[in-house]
Request: fold
Amino acid sequence: MQEQYEEIIAIRPGKILDPYTPIVPGDLYTKPVQKSELIDGMMSSTNIPKMIGKMTWVPVANGEPLLDWKVVDDKKLFPNLDQARYEIPISDFTPMTEIRKGDFVKVWVRYSAKKQEQMIEQLGPPIEFKQTPGAASDFLFTSQVAGVKGSQGEEIFSMLAPIVESTQAVGEFIDNKPENSSDTQRRLQQTYRGAPTAIPSRMLFNWSDEQYKIFVEALKYGDVQIGVYMPQAEKITLNDNGNVEVIDIPFVPTIGETESQITAAK
Reply:
């Protein structure tokens, strides 16, 4: 009977691996699967040490097998050949409460009445992006957060740590068992997701030259706002180099482009 089964790596019941959050030993366990039911990407239990510290680029949770094509190294968020890495101070964005490394975000400019007057009198129309007449805000582009860092350059995996990390921890909090509460707190402190790390200071983005010019100009016209979103699963893929790509990033025309140029770019 044992020869008909193989031990594979899976996510421990009650655990959730958020995208681009380092895997710790407590996230994983092994479970037997019939060899006839093995699918491509399942990994043998002997590979557990190799998975520690790596990340997934999609959520994986609660007993789900950890497939090798869902696992990436931190280097997968390095800039492409046509991009550069930019560290942007948190103060350049309107207030936010939570964001994670690897999050897909939409970048907007939100106009203020004071800056609108200054824009009309001194700046004129923007050059790098198109302003919609009378609009309170304009969409600029989409991007992915390549990292969040504190003032000393330390990596921050979440701006807002979750209260609990597993169903077992939830149960212990609900039952309010004194003998278990310290164990629960210790487990939370031993994981990236449970322990607050540092006060965020900068966010890292991989932007093209055009995206950076749009961002810098937008700061003159209003407040830049970013919002986390999740692309449709079928539109997230890995390219030939192993980098995560989103194929639904909308095209944003700049001033002066004709309809034929926009159609060609699409």
Remarks:
- Residues 150 and 198 are 6 Å apart (CA to CA).
- Confidence is low (pLDDT under 50) at residues 159-181, 248-266.
- The chain is about 20% helix and 25% strand.
